Amino acid sequence: MSAWLEHLTDWLGGNPEWLGLAIFLIALFECLALVGILLPGVLLLFSVALLAGSGVLTLWQTLLLAYAGGLCGDLLSYSLGRRFKEDIPRLPLLRRHPEWVLRAELYFQRYGMASLLVGRFIGPLRPMLPLAAGMLGMPLPRFIAISLLAAAGWAVAYLLPGWATGAALRLPMAEGFWSEAAILLAGIGLILLLTVQASLAEKRSACLLGGGLSLLLLLALMLGWPHLDALDQGLMTLVQEQRQAHLDATMVLLTRLGDLRTQLAAAILLCGLLLLARQWRPALFAGATLLCTALANGALKNGFARARPDILSEPLTSFSFPSGHSSAAFAFFLVLGVLAGRGQGARLRLAWLLLASLPALAIALSRVYLGVHWPSDIIAGALLACAVCGLSLAASQRRQTLTALPARLWWLLLPACLALLGGMATWHLSAAVLRYSY
Questions:
Q1: Beta strands of 126-271 (E only): which ranges?
Q2: How far apart are the first and last CA of the chain?
Q3: Hey, is 125 helix, strand or coil?
Q4: Which are the contacts of 344, defined by CB distance < 8 A and separation ≥ 6?
Q5: pLDDT tens digits for 357-375?
Q6: Which run of H or E residues covers position 62?
Q7: Is pLDDT larger for residue 131 or for residue 271?
Q8: Three-state DSSP class for 319?
Q9: Do residues 234 and 173 lie in contact, with contact meaning Cβ atoms separated by under 8 Å?
Q10: Over 80: is that where the pLDDT of 11 sits?
Q11: For residues 50 and 162, is the Cβ–Cβ distance under 8 A?
Q12: Phi, psi of 138 (to 5 degrees)
């Protein structure tokens, strides 16, 4: 397999005009029923994204091609399930592995539309769930609506790391960039590895371990951020290279989702709905996480008094480290991810946390895109939120595990929070436009 992959990447490196088609087809096959189980799609996508980032394709072209390929794979799988639902279990490969379809059907029947969002990040389930949705008669408009959202998060999660690595290899980075990046990535990777292993082993200390390790890495970052100048400058250059005028408004809208007033209103709504539903312990966990994150971020920011990047023509007067938008966004969405994963298996709990991290990551990256935070600022904000969330969850579950929220409460909770976030961000953006027009 390694020789075959090396031959493919060498050929694409010599024939870059085929790279866009390769990204589309690999994404399609990775999400196609049966094929996606047999294909080493994660490794292939990282390899072709690495080539794309070396200067062949822009980030937006790479993500769009993967997004389109993933959607086509979903639709083909759904159509196959809808058209040949009785015959699919009789296929030779599925006769030898009937558990593939059975597991996907069970997940879909248990979690419905949410399974298509979460299962997107669970390798064996990703190509089989659209097939199961078609076999079980999910309405096509509903399937398309969920797939449009799920494929977007999947494309970012699977293509962005490879493309960013390729772009960083292409640019002339300052001395010390790669050593600083390696140390930071090793720390983050160690946290993820140990926390995932503890979660899969169903250890009750998993959240305490994740929170404690995040706090240790945050402390190391607090001590070492003056020595991360090469990393910050290099990543800032990489992000600013991708700026496009027609994307600025979208990034401003994203960054408004992390504003203090927006996050405060969302936190009050979330905790208020949990209290009205008499979910006392989840409300205490959510309130403690969001409040402690905000207080800790304010104290750290004033204590370090780090200057912001000088990209803006009118620099902001507040301090930079850690990013309040990043910490608030990660705290809020991680709380939603934790609550959504209660009562489910370890893989689904981890997938919910990954899914919840994507909108928070988008808000955090918008700060670097707009030039108002250094990359280490948003990393510190994310680590702060992870530390507080993990430790708060461990305290909440010291005597008894948090139980799953009722499904009907989620149908009220999630749309209400998303509508509030979107409404507040749009209002802030409209007010800014009116202010500048006068």
A1: none
A2: 62
A3: coil
A4: 352, 404
A5: 988 998 998 988 888 888 8
A6: helix 59-83
A7: 271
A8: coil
A9: yes
A10: no
A11: yes
A12: -65, 135
Residue whose entry in the numeric block shows the structure tokens 């050929």: 11
The Cα 191–Cα 197 span in angstroms is 10
Whether residue 286 contacts residue 272, with contact meaning beta carbons closer than 8 Å, is answered with: no
Taking the C-alpha atoms of residue 385 and residue 215, their distance in angstroms, rounded to an integer, is: 9
Domains and their CATH numbers in the chain: 2-151 (no CATH), 175-437 (1.20.144)
CB 363 within 8 A of CB 325: yes
Alpha carbon distance 131, 84 (integer Å)? 10
CB atoms within 10 A of CB 154: 26
Q: What angle do CA 201, 387, 274 make, to 5 degrees?
A: 85
CA distances from 355 to 101, 120, 149, 154 (A): 23, 9, 11, 9
More confident residue, 37 or 177: 177
Percentage of residues of the chain with pLDDT beyond 70: 93
CB neighbour list of residue 159: distance below 8 Å, 6 or more residues apart: 23, 45, 49, 62, 63, 66
pTM: 0.82
Distance, CA of 311 to CA of 232 (rounded, Å): 13
- Dihedral (CA of 163, 167, 169, 170) sign: positive
- Please give the DSSP secondary-structure letter assigned to residue 17: G
pLDDT number for residue 286: 93
Phi-psi bin for 307: left (phi > 0), alpha (psi -120 to 50), beta? beta
* pLDDT, average across residues 317-322: 70
Question: Is the separation of the CB atoms in 41 and 30 below 8 Å?
Answer: yes
How does DSSP classify residue 373?
S
Count of positions (residues) in the chain: 438
pLDDT at 321 over 70: yes
Instruction: Name which residue leads in pLDDT, 85 or 366.
Output: 366
Helix (H, G, I), strand (E, B) or coil at 326: helix
Which residue has 């989620």 as its token pair?
Answer: 410
Amino acid at 366: S
Query: Alpha-carbon distance 285 to 392, whole Å?
Result: 6
What span, in angstroms and rounded, lies between the C-alpha atoms of 171 and 184? 19
CB 265 within 8 A of CB 428: no
CA distances to 96, 251, 257, 319, 371 from 429, in Å: 56, 11, 10, 22, 18
Per-residue model confidence (pLDDT) at position 241: 79
